[in-house]
Amino acid sequence: MPELHLEREAIVLFEQLLAVAEHDRDMWLDERITGRPDLRQRIEAMRQGDRDATLRTGSAVDELEEEVPPERIGAYKIVELIGRGGMGSVYRGERITGDFAHIVAIKIIKLGLLSDSLIERFARERQILANLSHPNIAQLYDGGETETGSPFIIMEHVGGLPLTQWTEKRGATQAERQGLFITICEAVSFAHRNLIVHRDLTPSNVLVTADGVVKLIDFGIAKPADAPSFDEGEALNEPPSKASVASLSLTPGYAAPERMTSSDVTTATDIFSLGKLLEKLVPDAAADNELRAIIARATEAQPLARYATADMLAQDVIAWRDGLPVAAVGGGRRYMLRKFVGRHRIGVAASALALVLLTGAFSLTVLANVRAEKARADAEYRFEQTRSIAKTLLFDAFDEVSKVPGSTKSREILGRSGLAYINALASDPGAPTDVRLEAGRGYTRLAKVMGGGQAGQLGMTESTNDLLAKADAILRPIYEADRGDAGTSRDIAELLIEQSGNNLYNNNETELARKQAIEAQKVLTSIARNDPESAQLYATAVQAEADSYGWDDGYDKAEPIFLRAETFIAALPQRLRDDPKVMAARSANLRLLAEAHHKLKKENLAEAALDRAISINRVLVNMQPDDPASIRKLAISLWYRAVVLRTNKKDALARTSIDEAVTNARILRARDPSDAGALKLFGTVGEVKAQILADQQQFAASFAMGDDVIAAYRRLVVLAGNTPGELRSMATVLATSGGNFYKGGAYPKACGAWREALTIFTRLNARGKLTDTDRKNGVPALQKYLKRNCDGGAPRAGMGPNIDI
């Protein structure tokens, strides 16, 4: 492999060469590298690489021997070689564990290419990037080292062509090329907001699928924007067979000048590469003064002179496309006037012909229009700035913070702050529809964190009802006015699903919950198979309909509906079935289907469904090890498997399953004391563990767990403000705990728990909030146990460990 000083010298010269006219480049090189055949060879290799646009990971040449790949990595079998680059090779992998089909791309780094310190750094960055989820960024799923020590990453398999190859093969129009570039900027902006710099944005690292979807790849060599740069000087002391990630992630022609001097890499580095991409993507860019100005600003030598953000670069491209003033041009009144006339050519010409005698007045009118347009442009700029801040807080930052353990309160603050900005914009009578939609989505999102859903939340369900009502007031009129818009349909469906869950779990309104779930399905029917989000929402709406029957003990009605959700998911295209959102929806449906099977005495089917749910949830946790939502889903599926196994007298397996569920629940509760969802999860799984401990006659441990669970539910009732859902849960756990206490001989404690549970059910009945299940099963069971075992307040012994409830 060439020495690094030769590599660096070649890169510097190649960067300068790109600024020379094509027909003068050979002469220019001859003047500078005469007598340097080694240097000439390196530069010619770079020129060829630039022509082919096939280098995937920078300018490092493929001089190390290619390592023979293993037959499998983790759960995936290596099927075929997809491509090779400077850092290693990329293979297509297929999942072979049999639980579900999944195709991925597996990139294996060449053995010996990176130093030990950089391998460690690579692993840390890989974990950061695993949380980078965006529709235009290839998702990173997993990573590690092969048995021979080669680092690898497992990522989304993208079937597409490199950007410039796609545009040439497609014969892409100017408008299509502009749209592609704007989408690329949006994806880069998302990464930057999550403090990630790509570092190697080139046409070959931007793939476009057959249907025109952009996917950024090779984030495996990205770095946090606020992290110190790799120490190039230290890398020079490495053995000649090793190189730094920085040198491997540098593609001549697209790398910013500061990359040559090893200075700190910032988001400005990607802005430079975006400018070079724009120049490559748009034909005859040099002939358009405005476009040339945009490219020049993006590729300024000094990072601070470039566009501050990828969004600002995209906005200037949009302005150029739409004939609006381009910020990079920096023109004065004359430029503004020219742009105004260009957009209103017919009107200006007609006015000139009609008012030729009033030229002076016309000039004043035009100038006034120009000033008004400038004021409008300034106002729009401020509007978009405020909107950008709001969207970042309420959506982008909110989503990323949601993946961080212990972030429930932070999510509320972000949600409220972002919503305050959005409301200020949406309150304007002339506010665009999309801004009002953002406000409606914001209320739905905030409702989830306040007390809706089954994820991390604050338990304030009264606030949830109010927030969902506000979301409905905004979103429903917009949806009714344009039912054909897919985005609006998703927004109203998400609201309906959240309302359904809130009515089921918090308000004990099963019929209303069912009606809302069915309405959500109707809204989504035409788009359910279009994208992962729509597919997830539709599957969840079907689950919600079925779940409402379960709450009324109608599992015979619920079971076929859960199976309908399974059929829907199975019929989706592979790319949708493999999406984490859809995988999460399927795991939830399988867990609920297992409950229906269990209630209908189909125990083998119940266990099989739970095994599949747990398998999917383990994959999701492996993808995002610290994601609270994935941990929660795994804990719930383990909990219900313990319930089923306990019923089937498989005590040892039940104990193993519930122990893991409780461990995960304790982790979430300890990480975020503000999370009422974690508290509820702990109460749910802890209740079953207390039962299993009582079955094993470990009564001291069972009582301690029972007391902890009851305390958790008492806190939940207070947080929720005595809502029917939490009161019902409180009564249920008191009834179950009473059975455990009685088995252990704590008769007064058992009778006290049962009486309190019956009192709660009686009050719910008076409020018209008692479910059919409680009316048929819960209340009669409590009355029976109190009559038989607590005569006049004096517990009657005799049944001992045989009692159950």
Question: Can you tell me about this structure?
Answer:
With 805 residues, the chain is an alpha+beta fold. 63% of the residues lie in helices and 7% in strands. The strands form four sheets. It has a six-stranded antiparallel beta sheet, covered by helices on one side. Strand 1 (72-73) and strand 2 (76-84) form a beta hairpin. Helix 14 (359-402) runs antiparallel to helix 15. It is elongated, with a radius of gyration of 31 Å. Residues 52-65, 225-248, 346-359, 361-366 and 797-805 have low confidence and may be disordered.
Itemize the secondary structure elements and their pairings.
Blueprint: H1 4-17, H2 25-33, H3 37-52, E1 72-73, E2 76-84, E3 88-95, E4 103-109, H4 116-129, E5 140-145, E6 151-156, E7 160-162, H5 163-170, H6 174-193, E8 196-197, E9 206-209, E10 214-216, E11 223-224, H7 232-236, H8 245-248, H9 267-281, H10 289-298, H11 310-322, H12 333-343, H13 345-354, H14 359-402, H15 408-426, H16 433-450, H17 461-481, H18 486-505, H19 510-524, H20 532-551, H21 555-570, H22 574-577, H23 580-599, H24 603-623, H25 628-647, H26 651-671, H27 676-695, H28 699-720, H29 724-743, H30 747-766, H31 772-789, E12 790-791, E13 794-795
Antiparallel strand pairs: 1-2, 2-3, 3-4, 4-6, 5-6, 7-9, 8-11, 9-10, 12-13
Helix pairs in contact: 1-3, 6-9, 6-11, 9-10, 10-11, 12-14, 14-15, 14-16, 15-16, 16-17, 16-18, 17-18, 18-19, 18-20, 19-20, 20-21, 20-23, 21-23, 23-24, 23-25, 24-25, 25-26, 25-27, 26-27, 27-28, 27-29, 28-29, 29-30, 30-31
